[in-house]
Design goal:
Blueprint lengths: L1 E5 L4 E7 L16 E3 L4 H8 L5 H8 L13 H14 L2 E4 L6 E9 L5 E10 L5 H23 L13
Antiparallel strand pairs: 1-2, 1-6, 2-3, 4-5, 5-6
Length: 165
């Protein structure tokens, strides 16, 4: 499990990492390190929660590039992916950043509905089939993000995971 924020260049900064009781050893994530946001579950969840067009910023920086054959590095495809994330309330990384690693992520909202941070559940692809990522793990990520948001003072969320009244 990862907890992170975005830096000024829209990179993920890992703040905390809880290791699995099962040996994983394949993930590059380390507390204090950065990673590209557009191809990680943690990063895409946070990008989708931003109010403006983060893809335009990433384009201007010239940072969109494929890490694996699954990386969504084309701007319009990435915008469509971020819209899907907004609608369902969670993100997926299906071996987009690292071969053999899958993740599901959710944004953590602050007191005024703004994106404050994000969290992700990650592991080896062979242990995380899509049905698990899209089902129980997606719900766990959304629930944990909502609970952290509540503790930060966020308003109640609607059933679709977006700020409510």
């Amino acid at each position: 499990v990862h907890l992170g924020v975005l830096d000024d260049e829209l990179r993920v900064v890992y703040l905390e990492k809880l290791e699995s009781t099962h040996a994983v050893g394949i993930m590059m994530s380390r507390v204090g390190r950065t990673a590209s946001s557009y191809c990680t579950g943690l990063g895409k969840a946070m990008l989708a929660a931003l109010p403006d067009d983060p893809v335009a910023t990433l384009e201007e920086q010239g940072t969109l590039r494929p890490y694996t054959p699954n990386t969504i590095a084309e701007p319009e495809a990435l915008r469509a992916e971020l819209e899907r994330i907004r609608k369902r309330g969670y993100s997926l990384d299906l071996e987009e950043h690292e071969p053999g690693v899958r993740c599901v992520g959710a944004a953590i909202l602050g007191p005024h509905g703004e994106m404050a941070a994000g969290l992700s559940i990650s592991g080896p692809a062979q242990r995380l089939p899509e049905r698990l990522l899209r089902g129980p793990l997606a719900e766990a990520a959304r629930a944990a993000a909502a609970e952290i948001g509540r503790r930060l003072g966020a308003r109640r969320e609607s059933s679709d995971g977006h700020p409510g009244g």
